[in-house]
Amino acid sequence: MTIVDEPLSAEAIESRLTTRLLGHPTYFYAQIGSTNTEAIRLAYEGAPDGTLVIADSQSAGKGRLGRRWFAPPGSALLFTLLLRPRLSPVQAQRITMACSLGVARAVESLTGVPARIKWPNDLVVSGKKLGGVLTELSTVTDGVLDYAVVGIGLNVNLHPAELPETMTPPTSLLVECGQPVSRLALLIRLLTECEALYLPLCAGWSPHEAWREALETIGQQVQVGTAEEVIRGRAVDVTETGALVVEDEAGARHVILAGDVTLRGHRLER
Ligand code: BTN
After folding, report:
1. Residue of the nearest CA to atom 7 in ligand 1?
2. Residues of 6-25 as b/e, b for ≥16 C-beta within 10 angstroms?
3. Are strands 128-137 and 148-154 parallel, antiparallel or unpaired?
């Protein structure tokens, strides 16, 4: 696969999309604070389901747990989808499940790189972090979310020296493929794969089972630090609402909603 990276622009993206919802409209920025923050602003202005906010660089990229997300300009995919599925807060984790699964599928189908998901929603290749998903949810009206913004950061054409320092050792598609990958082609594939999961989700389908199968964490020995204790054991399952189920050495099961997890020496976060 020899691919020349093409510049990103709203016109280039929208003219190639065959999706019904995702990417319509698209807002492209050469530089922005955070695409998630901009998507939230657009949500309050009434922007529609499927709106895409994408940037070549972010000055205040947000990661999970209040961390920052760094990427050199012009080499990563940094974007946010504004989604408005009619889901209750209990069902909200489905949105992140569907999007992280869509990203993993798109990476694998376009590049051949076997991308998996590390609980809860890191994109990994052989245990190395390729990207992450940060979902921010709105308040609820009549039991239904007003919107969700799903921010996705993917290390595409980053050279080894440019990879950010993260708890989980990082990688990029350039490193994994040994050649650059077109961000435009990857973005189009991502939006297509995510929409293929998002439309059924809007019709009531849960991506839980498919997401579970894409998790590399199941079956691994993990160490989970919660506010009260440290649980050591084997990750045996994930619940419908996205919690991790860990079986300790005595055979007791612990349902981990949030916490820091160490997997073979690397931390998982939620
Ligand atoms: C993580 O911590 O693993 C999640 C990182 C999510 C980063 C992306 S980059 C595009 C979007 N805008 C942000 O400010 N954050 C997300």
Report:
1. 153
2. eebeeebbeeebebebbbee
3. antiparallel
63 CA closest ligand 1 atom index: 2
Ligand 1 proximal residues by C-beta, below 6 Å: 34-36, 58, 61-64, 67, 69, 78-80, 122, 132-134, 151-153
pLDDT in tens, 68-100: 999 999 999 999 999 999 999 999 999 999 999
Which class for 203: exposed (0-12), middle (13-18), buried (19 or more C-beta within 10 A)? exposed
Is the four-CA dihedral 195, 36, 143, 91 of positive or negative sign? positive
Instruction: Give the model confidence (pLDDT) of 188-204 as tens digits.
Output: 999 999 999 999 999 99
Crossing angle of the two packed helices 183-202 and 93-111, in degrees rounded to 10:
140
User: Looking at the whole model, is its pTM more than 0.90?
Assistant: yes
